[in-house]
Design brief:
Its main location: membrane. The chain is an all-beta fold. Helices cover 0% and strands 39% of the residues. The protein has one domain. A hairpin with a 5-residue loop joins strand 5 and strand 6.
């Protein structure tokens, strides 16, 4: 599991072979898992080139711990604001 940051020149929300990769972060989560559930098309977050905001890519990250009640939901608004809430996995 990880995070891929790339320039989506074709705006198809899929990395094509000719599109530059800016960064890839590998998540080595030992004590739980992290998932993204977004609204709209696809399971990704698109930051707009004119403002840098994730307009149309609102949704939530869900962290579910394996052995504890320490589970959280991180809500991301269409304007990029976030808040953390308790969550049941």
């Amino acid at each position: 599991m990880g995070l891929l940051v790339f320039h989506d020149k074709t705006s198809n929300r899929i990395r094509d072979p000719h599109e530059d990769i800016y960064q890839f972060l590998h998540f080595d989560l030992k004590y739980g898992n992290l998932n993204w559930k977004g609204f709209g098309i696809g399971g990704n977050i698109v930051f707009q080139p004119d403002t840098g905001l994730p307009r149309g890519s609102n949704g939530s990250f869900y962290y579910c711990a394996n052995l504890s009640e320490n589970t959280r939901r991180i809500v991301v608004s269409p304007m990029g604001h976030s808040r953390i809430e308790p969550h049941q996995c």
